[in-house]
Write a structure and sequence with these properties.
mainly beta; 3 domains
């Protein structure tokens, strides 16, 4: 079967032969030469018409994979190969309307802990052989045309018993690539969107509201030479959506006001700034050094507390060389709680909540974190990349709880790997912690006083398909 390349080659050779004939007969009798030229011009016109038909009837395929492929926009095309001939069979694009893209994900989670559930006083995290359950279903909308103009993004997530908006903003992209985002967007703080972490659990900064935090406000992002700059103002934390809790049905951890102990504040009028300087250190080696700052008002329930303030600052760096990546960050934060005299509450603890769950955390702390990752592209058909990583972070605390006990530090180390293949992304993690409420079975193993201070571990597999 003749392919497009073969047909095109034949026609081009015909055209070349016709053109060469002009030079061969250039010295003939003028009248005879004119007759030959007219005849050759007719043949040349016919050849050109045939070449145009070849170009029109064949289209270049998007892929030669021999199976269905998914573009970044979510559109699929079936590309088949048969004896060297490529046949493209486009399907209707059900994931895109103009520049508006529709996507989502569905994830399930397997948990196996080295602990036994304790009758409901602590988090239930699968003993006795582990358990498998649906983790997340989410829908994404992304309006991202090329060039200057309006942009936007939205994401809504469903969990077992509660659901909430993760993202929801509209924006404007300037000619120089700078962007404005108005609405529920990610707070610019730290080395990256997920802090220092590569794993499913994030780092400890997430559980004190400083990693991957979503708030409601206006953010501006730009690049100036080697500099990446962000500035933002947030009128409030992300709102409470739909769940059983009074003020914790949300994605990221924020201070809560739900009328219970340690939960009498809400975040208002937050300002953020971040600057990151990019350095090229040589062949395939870079370093990004940056600082982040934020400050906000803490609006109090006057029955229990006084209005106050909160602040945080971080220094961070990201080094990359080939498949290796090292991220380090040192963060200091202070949620300056001031509970009314006689309340019996400790100013060293403050209520924070997410995922329909609230629990007190240390209101002040120093948070060092570091991660090392290595990505490979194995010679395996069913795996695109594997990223191996080890992420460590710890909350160093000062102060005491309402019983007078000193607050114990909370540390977590996650050793794991992430496997990517097309729309599939799979985390395989082994988390070890002495103060993360989601790794263990004790209510006193937490981000606050952490009186139990027992090292426990959790093996976790998260399987996600993203479309």
């Amino acid at each position: 079967m003749t392919t497009r390349a073969g047909r095109r080659t034949q026609v081009l050779l015909m055209v070349a032969a016709l053109l060469a004939t002009f030079s061969v007969f250039a010295e003939e009798d003028p009248d005879a030469l004119r007759r030959r030229i007219a005849d050759l011009e007719a043949q040349l016109a016919a050849a050109r018409a045939q070449l145009a038909q070849v170009d029109e009837s064949y289209s270049e395929p998007e892929s030669h994979a021999g199976s269905a492929t998914v573009t970044q926009a979510g559109a699929s095309k079936h590309v088949l190969e048969d004896a060297g001939e490529v046949i493209e069979e486009p399907e209707e694009d059900v994931f895109r309307i103009g520049d508006l893209y529709l996507g989502g994900a569905i994830r399930s989670n397997y948990v196996l802990g080295d602990y036994v559930e304790d009758g409901g006083t602590g988090p239930q995290r699968g003993g006795n052989g582990g358990n498998m359950e649906l983790d997340t279903f989410r829908i994404n909308l992304d309006y991202n045309p090329e060039g200057t103009g309006w942009i936007g993004k939205g994401e809504y997530r469903y969990y077992n018993g509660y659901h909430f908006a993760h993202t929801g903003w509209i924006g404007w992209r300037q000619e120089d690539g700078s962007e404005w985002q108005l609405g529920l967007n990610r707070v610019p703080f730290g080395a990256g969107a997920y802090g220092t972490s590569h794993n499913w659990f994030f780092d400890q900064g997430y559980y004190v509201g400083l990693t991957d935090d979503m708030d409601v406000g206006l953010r501006f992002s730009t690049e100036r030479g080697p500099w990446k700059l962000d500035a933002a103002y947030y009128v409030q934390a992300e709102p409470n959506f739909f769940g059983d809790s009074t003020d914790s049905a949300r994605y990221s951890y924020d201070i809560v006001d739900n009328g219970t102990a340690h939960a009498h504040y809400s975040e208002r009028n937050q300002f953020n700034g971040r600057a990151i300087r990019h350095f090229e250190l040589g062949k395939d080696q870079t370093f990004d050094a940056g600082v982040s700052v934020q400050a906000s008002q803490l609006k109090a329930d006057p029955r229990f507390a006084e209005d106050s303030w909160a602040a945080a600052a971080a220094a961070h760096g990201k080094w990359k060389k080939g498949p290796w990546e090292v991220i380090a960050q040192l963060t200091a934060y202070d949620y300056h709680a001031r509970y009314n005299s006689g309340s019996g509450l400790s100013n060293d603890l403050i209520g924070m909540g997410a995922y329909d769950f609230e629990f007190p955390v240390a209101s002040q702390g120093l948070l060092p974190a570091i991660s090392v990752a290595h990505t490979i592209e194995p010679n395996i058909d069913w795996i695109d990349t594997i990223t191996f990583y080890n992420d460590f972070s710890v909350i160093l605390k000062d102060g005491r709880d309402e019983m007078g006990n000193a607050l114990n530090d909370s540390a977590m180390n996650v050793l794991g790997a992430a496997f990517a293949r097309g729309g599939w992304y799979i985390y395989v993690d082994w988390a070890v912690s002495d103060g993360n409420y989601f790794v263990g079975d004790e209510a006193f193993t937490n981000f606050g006083s952490n009186q139990q201070q027992t090292w426990q571990s959790r093996f976790n597999v998260n399987l996600g398909y993203y479309f």
